[in-house]
Design a protein that fits this description.
Elements (H helix, E strand, L loop, with lengths): L1 H29 L24 H11 L6 H8 L3 H17 L4 E6 L2 E6 L4 H7 L10 H13 L2 E2 H8 L4 H9 L3 E6 L7 E5 L1 H6 L11 H4 L4
Antiparallel strand pairs: 1-2, 3-5, 4-5
Length: about 220
C-alpha cells in the first residue's frame, strides 16, 4: 500500500512538472523579443503558428475582411493603436502593393478606407460580376440622381423644373436603393421635403466626399 501511494505521488508530481514546463514555454514565447507586445500579446491558442502578427498586418486583415469603408478612428479602435499609426500603416501597405504590382490598393471612400481593385482591371471584373437588372439605374434615374447630388439639399419641385417631368416615382426608387434620403424640410410655403445623397451613393461612385464630384465645367461637352 505504501509503495502504491509513492508511485501515485510520483505521477502527480510529473503532471505538475509538465504543467509548469508548459506555462514557462508559453510565458517565454509570449515575451520573446520577436513577439508582439500589448495589444498584440495574443495567447498561444489564438496566435497563428505560421505567421508573425504585426499591427500593420492586423490593419490589413481588418480592411480585407470589411465589406464597407472604415474610418481611421474605427480602425484605430479595432486594432487598439493610434489614428496616426493607422495612416502610416495604410501608406506603408500601399507602397508595398505598388512595389509588388498588386491589383489592389487601400483607397479613401465615403470618409473611410477600403481595399479596392484598380480600375485597370474593370474589363475582367465586369465579366465576373453579374449585376441584377433591377439594380441598374435608368438614364432618367441617373439624371435625377445627378441633379440631387449637385443641387442638394433640393426640393422635388426644383428637380422637376430642371428635368421638365415628374420625378416622384424616380425619387422613391432612388430612396429604396439607398442612394437618396430626406435631409430636412425647406423653409417655404408647405414645407416641402429636401433631398440629398447618402453614404452609399459615395461608396458606389467611388467618392470620398461630395467635394470629389466632377466640376460642372468638366462635364460640359467641348465646342
Amino acid at each position: 500500500m505504501e509503495e502504491y501511494m509513492t508511485e501515485e505521488q510520483k505521477t502527480e508530481e510529473q503532471k505538475t512538472e509538465d504543467r509548469r514546463q508548459k506555462t514557462e514555454y508559453r510565458t517565454r514565447n509570449n515575451h520573446h523579443p520577436s513577439s508582439i507586445v500589448h495589444p498584440f500579446d495574443f495567447t498561444q491558442d489564438r496566435r497563428p503558428s505560421s505567421a508573425e502578427l504585426t499591427a500593420e498586418s492586423v490593419v490589413e486583415a481588418v480592411l480585407f475582411a470589411s465589406d464597407e469603408p472604415l474610418s481611421d478612428a474605427r480602425l484605430a479602435d479595432i486594432v487598439e493603436i493610434g489614428v496616426k499609426q493607422v495612416r502610416q500603416y495604410i501608406q506603408s501597405l500601399n507602397e508595398k502593393y505598388k512595389a509588388n504590382n498588386n491589383a489592389f490598393r487601400i483607397e479613401q471612400i465615403a470618409g473611410g478606407y477600403q481595399m479596392l481593385t484598380l480600375s485597370a482591371y474593370n474589363h475582367w471584373l465586369q465579366k465576373l460580376l453579374h449585376v441584377r437588372s433591377e439594380g441598374k439605374l435608368s438614364s432618367a434615374s441617373l439624371e435625377t440622381l445627378a441633379i440631387i447630388a449637385y443641387k442638394q439639399p433640393v426640393i422635388r419641385a426644383d428637380i422637376e423644373a430642371i428635368r421638365g417631368v415628374a420625378v416622384g416615382e424616380i425619387i422613391r426608387s432612388l430612396m429604396s436603393k439607398g442612394l437618396v434620403k430626406i435631409v430636412g424640410r425647406a423653409e417655404v410655403i408647405g414645407r416641402p421635403m429636401l433631398y440629398g445623397t447618402t453614404k452609399k451613393f459615395l461608396e458606389i461612385f467611388g467618392l470620398n466626399s461630395l467635394k470629389d464630384l466632377p466640376k460642372v465645367e468638366e462635364l460640359k461637352k467641348p465646342d
